[in-house]
Amino acid sequence: MLSPLVDAVRAAAAGGGDGKARALRIAGGGSKDFYGRPTAGEPLDVRGYAGIVAYEPTELVVTARCGTPLAELEATLAASGQMLAFEPPHFGGPPDLQPPHSGGPPGPQPPYSGATATVGGMVAAGLGGPRRQAAGALRDFVLGVTILDGRGEVLSFGGQVMKNVAGYDVSRLMAGSLGTLGIILEVSLKTLPCPVMEETLQFEMPEDKAIATLNRWAGQPLPVTASAWCAGELHVRLSGAPVAVSAARERMGGVRIDADAAQRFWLSIREQSAVFFGAEDALVRPLWRLSVPSTTPAAALDRIEGARLIEWGGALRWAASGTDAATIRDVAAKAGGHATLFRAEAGLRERIGVFQPLAPAALAIHRQLKAAFDPHGIFNPGRMYAEF
Amino acid sequence: MGDPGVNIERQAQVRARLAALLPAESILFEREDTRPYECDGLSAYRQQPMLVVLPANEDEVRAVLVACHDMRVPVVPRGAGTGLSGGALPMGDGVLLSLARMKKILSLDPAARMARVQPGVRNLAISEAAAPYGLYYAPDPSSQIACTIGGNVAENSGGVHCLKYGLTVHNVARVRGLTIAGEVVEFGSEALDAAGYDLLALMIGSEGMLAVVTEVSVRLVPKPETARCIMASFDDVERAGDAVAGIIAAGIIPAGLEMMDQAATRAVEAFAHAGYDLEAKALLLCEADGNPEEVAGEIARMSEVLQRQGATAIRVSRSEAERLLFWAGRKAAFPAVGRISPDYYCMDGTIPRKRLGEMLRFIAAMEAKYGLRCPNVFHAGDGNLHPLILFDANVPDELHRTEQFAAEVLEKCIALGGTITGEHGVGIEKINQMCVQFSASELALMRGVKAAFDPDGLLNPAKNIPTLHRCAEHGGMHVRAGRLAHPELPRF
Ligand SMILES: Cc1cc2nc3c(=O)[nH]c(=O)nc-3n(C[C@H](O)[C@H](O)[C@H](O)COP(=O)(O)OP(=O)(O)OC[C@H]3O[C@@H](n4cnc5c(N)ncnc54)[C@H](O)[C@@H]3O)c2cc1C
Ligand SMILES: Cc1cc2nc3c(=O)[nH]c(=O)nc-3n(C[C@H](O)[C@H](O)[C@H](O)COP(=O)(O)OP(=O)(O)OC[C@H]3O[C@@H](n4cnc5c(N)ncnc54)[C@H](O)[C@@H]3O)c2cc1C
Fold first, then answer.
1. A365/B185 Cβ within 8 A
2. Would you say B36 and B28 are in contact if contact means Cβ atoms under 8 Å apart?
3. Of A214, B59, B192, B238, which residue is the least packed, with the fewest Cβ within 10 Å?
4. Complex ipTM, two decimals?
């Protein structure tokens, strides 16, 4: 099961007759193809290495192989009343991996069309959903990984225990590395019990007031676990013991949303199926993700035209905008954050890059790290930055 | 004067170079001035540093690093020196770089719940500064009165509340650091993430080997409205271990979940007068926090689980003072043990919680084998153990037996699927066990990580990641969880 992957990587590293290493494009479910820069290379389907290896609810740890469908992992946890607290987005994707077509990678997939996302892709993408504001990011839940590095060696870091400071924290480094450092073969994640109760409140308020209010609430012991503001409407989710939730509701006010509607609403934020994210439109009007300090005032983003959606208590600002990349990145940097070209047609992603450019010292470290993990540069070259 | 390990000529040469960069009082070289820096909290290891340098700001740190880099002088960063693995152990041919003078809180933004501090700020000082706003910094190592945030970042320190509130890595948003070449690198950001690889995660727990921390942005969290603590007695240590699993199985994540065995409670009680049940073979401390009704509910649920799991007595704190008293005992465990024995050696392995009973039986067997006593305190919720081996360094052979005892326990942690260090770091102390926990290729990759930041190997070298040569000498066989890793693959 593992040996075909090891063989493929060693063969790619050794190269063809010309002795030049061949690039590989690590392919999970293909659900997040839209994310990151397009990358050339032979697809290496890692979905065959699948399955939940160990799960013990009382240890709060699950270990799964990379090809395990994310949906399967979540269902297994749910059966024991637990969850991945960072609420990873699945994002839809074609059910079967097909050979790449000639004109570059496909455009954005219709959101949440199928359960194709894999555990490996989830870790490599490192994305979190609405609950991230309260529970932490994917990387906060990574306890250990087994990877296949660019020499074709199987390496393990971290483990299945909550606390581990032996050696450098290579496991968390894999989160969000977009498959550029190595193939994630297996990952151990901390799980948490599902909340006993959840309730969603709705408020009408302008953007600035929403930002101030969310920050004020975050400074108080209130069980807020998700928030989303768009077009004058603020939704806030409370989770926890019924007494805590009802006490918070009384303090905060707002209108309570029916449970089913609330669940659909948060799913539409997590999976970006809400009207705001309009996948079709992203081809015309790129979708930018601005990660900024939560108190950043609305006016700080005035130079970016177009509609906005706010999540994570103010720390995440989505902008569907035609403003030029340099301006958007400058706005994000001045606010103390960074901007990602989250969804756009491939040509644009290729041309202007997806992620905020790195400072020279940081870029040098990135390249050295890449070389340490993948000395022949075979894994997803250019997927994160053109330079490596 | 002329101590082994320090070359006087080299010392004079480096001192002359640094004297041009820093005020004279910031450079220590006389033996009586450098003596306090000879060891950290792991006092069994000592070394006179060539020089001690105490910069007052980032510019001075940069100047020292650039000069040392240029002269190929190794640099060992140091915070408060409370580390328990020899991470800040100086080098006879190196500069000990103390960040203790850089102790300003640069800003504290209650709206953004963020404090920006210099590396020498003490852990507790941050929570004190945040208290007027109803906020605090969550990781609370028992050494929090003394240890610095720079040291916390370097060790990824935890505390008794980290099961629910996380370790340093979960509570630090941003670190600003200088590489050995003097280049500024920003790790993370005051947003919830940053572009590129997660270098912040790599930096946290890197034991001062990748960059010198010069500024840290920490997240502050609102103080819970109220907290209460249960003290539960058990007449059997393993039953107490099962009760820990029982609480988690009930879907509860307590704010704190700690365990002490009888030897530890007896040592602590004599010191802290916390009102511990001295007849119990094991005590559990379980805390709930939140709004008063929620806390009452959780205390009731936890009490029920504990009762069902065979607790022989249950006490719930009736006041904030009593709650703090329960914790004061636990937090004073190390100094308390220090009073009943001339010396003690603190271990720090982590194991899957379900193996706790097995581990305790193993430790009891080791006590008999080596003729040394070993009280135990645990961060039970996290499976992180602190067995404390009692010894007397003046008795011939006791230190040696202690080290063998400790090595066996650490290797047992690995065999049980755990790790040799949960929060105190590898430092110099557990470097041989790294050869057991990791394969040659894994160690080689970690050396690659180090080289990405410090190609010349000048920043705190000789700690944390052993050389292959060292592993060959130790002769440790790399075995994980009782089996060779990936037996299906060919060995090379
Ligand atoms: C129908 C179809 C047509 C396609 N056409 C093209 C094309 O024309 N041009 C083109 O460039 N691409 C094309 N692709 C995409 C490509 O084949 C891969 O699917 C893609 O590059 C790899 O990741 P993913 O999006 O499938 O992984 P996801 O599961 O979405 O994962 C996201 C990220 O994680 C990485 N990843 C996934 N699993 C692991 C793991 N175990 N370890 C480390 N990293 C991992 C991926 O490389 C990717 O960076 C097509 C895909 C499909 C399904
Ligand atoms: C009584 C006692 C109780 C303790 N309880 C706990 C506990 O509950 N939990 C826990 O996790 N630990 C505990 N410790 C261990 C210790 O306090 C922590 O490891 C602490 O984080 C060390 O901080 P320090 O400032 O003393 O660092 P030091 O001991 O000075 O240094 C530790 C490491 O950090 C590096 N370093 C220090 N400052 C910097 C910097 N600015 N930049 C780069 N590297 C730097 C050093 O090189 C060294 O490798 C305890 C120690 C004692 C003595």
1. yes
2. no
3. B59
4. 0.93
